[in-house]
Amino acid sequence: MFKNIANKVWAFDAEWIPDPTAGRMLYDMAGEPDDHAVMERMWAAGGATDDDPTPYLKTMVCRIVSISAVVRTRRGNDVSLNLLSLPRDVHDPEQANEAHIISTFLQAIGEHKPQLVGYNSNSADLKILLQRGVRNGIQAAEFCHRPDKPWEGIDYFARGTDAHVDIKEVIGGWGKSTPSLHELAVVSGIPGKMETDGQQVAALWLNGDLDRIVAYNETDALTTYLVWLRLAFFAGHFSPDEYAQEQTRLREMINELIANRPAEQLSNHLAAWMAEWDRLTSML
Hints:
Blueprint: E1 8-18, H1 20-26, H2 35-45, E2 62-75, E3 78-86, H3 93-96, H4 98-112, E4 115-118, H5 121-135, H6 141-144, E5 164-166, H7 167-171, H8 181-186, H9 201-206, H10 210-234, H11 240-260, H12 268-283
Parallel strand pairs: 1-4, 4-5
Antiparallel strand pairs: 1-2, 2-3
Helix pairs in contact: 10-11, 11-12
């Protein structure tokens, strides 16, 4: 269990797909113009079967296409929430570039030094950020900085600290006893996977539906944040009244986003997520 809640908390989630460039380099497919054909070859090499045609691949050979985070900032008695997503503009090729997404996110972490929260993030999300950061030749010195002594600053590479809270490691068990984020969330009255899941992200990317990937990524970040809130309440970091206030604050943030987002930016997923939250809560 984590010992404290920092003044800055980022509950984040990343989405990735098989990287066609990696596939072309690894499997001598430089002349293959079809990204889908390259991905099929990568899945085949990764052990695809009729029952599992798109197996989980090593993160090193995958490409990050989106990162979302719920940002909680406390200044004294004031708490604010924001939902941040990369790429900010899905129609801008420069912003959608993987190196830009990773560099922007890691530089922001290095600057603000938040307490990171994720689900399976220690084994997956943070590792792919490191691996693909190295692959893309970016530098993230402040993120990587390690203080000489634990009390001298945030260290995202140290085990047993609260700099990074992986909910799966806190709450999980052995083998089949470990819940998925979807299972943990839904049985707790929190929306999990809805119309989209991780298996569909590659197909969405191939169809040019990056906006739908970002929308899905945002709901995963919201789910992770709400599960973290519930875990923090369980640990005694919030009183019952404070826990209710934190949930209200999240609802207010989402409603504000729905009301104020530009017309071209998707927000239906946020309304659907809120409706599912209400539905599940009524069943508890």
